[in-house]
């Protein structure tokens, strides 16, 4: 495998955003705003992203992730706040700064009438020291669809081509908007592997996703974004760590007979401090789990005279964290 330029990780963050605000006039359908109201897409968001790390912006549709990235890339002008990309204001970025940054947009943003390799050769020719494109083409399986013009490619093929184009200039900072959208499991694995390599090479990777699994598998740091703000930030381990007031999750799968035998004691005082979720025969308790609570559960099981199908204590997931913060599910 060819050796790529590996920039020494500088101490300063590759990207720093402070109190970013961005409004849009309410023109988009489905934005939820009444006609004439401005949409506050980003509402005082702050974050930093470093070299040698994958930073994931995780949040539901409309949370403000793409707008944040667009401001960071200099594609949108912030209404307020500060953005510094490799130490410069991206809105006034010089071509020299742009050459150090790779961007993969959500809709690909690719010209439609060219063939993949033509496009990649052209993009490489624009850069002073392009990445080894043959290796990327092979790795991302692009030769297999090289005879097809871009507009006829499948979503996943377009996504792989857009990733190769974003990496053509061997960038120090890579923005990936929903990198696994439309990918089959094998392509997803290849793309994740490549993102891991970029990280090891010391590049700064900033991605958006609404897939918890992507954030959990890829990210060194996760920023949970909702309503244009960072609601929580940290490594996956930090975010899911059972703190004093937020331990793990208890899941109980009831035997059919148990449901009829005796109702689950939702109203008992032991359950007041936890969230109780039910889906068919599965009862989930999340929040501050305590020995008295576990005792109350097993006592109730005893009164039904039947063993449950399963009883397990599980670590929190990012999904639980998001639910705790926002009071709703991420999708
Ligand atoms: N150009 C625009 N004009 C009007 N409203 C916009 C524009 N771009 C974004 N918005 C609105 O701003 C809000 C945030 O959108 P954004 O695309 O940043 O969210 P997101 O978190 O990336 O969502 P998704 O996961 O669906 O891509 C949404 O309400 C969206 O409708």
Would you kindly provide a written description of the structure presented here, covering whatever features stand out?
The protein is of the alpha/beta class and 331 residues long. The protein folds into two domains: 15-238, 3-Layer(aba) Sandwich (Rossmann fold); 249-315, no CATH class. 30% of the residues lie in helices and 24% in strands. The chain has eleven helices and 13 strands. Strands 5-6-7-3-8-9 form a six-stranded mixed β-sheet, sandwiched between helices. The radius of gyration is 24 Å and the shape is elongated. The two termini are 39 Å apart. Adenosine-5'-triphosphate is lined by residues 24, 27-28, 31, 39, 41, 59, 61-67, 208, 210. GO terms for molecular function: ATP binding; ATP hydrolysis activity. Its main location: membrane. Pfam families: ABC_tran.
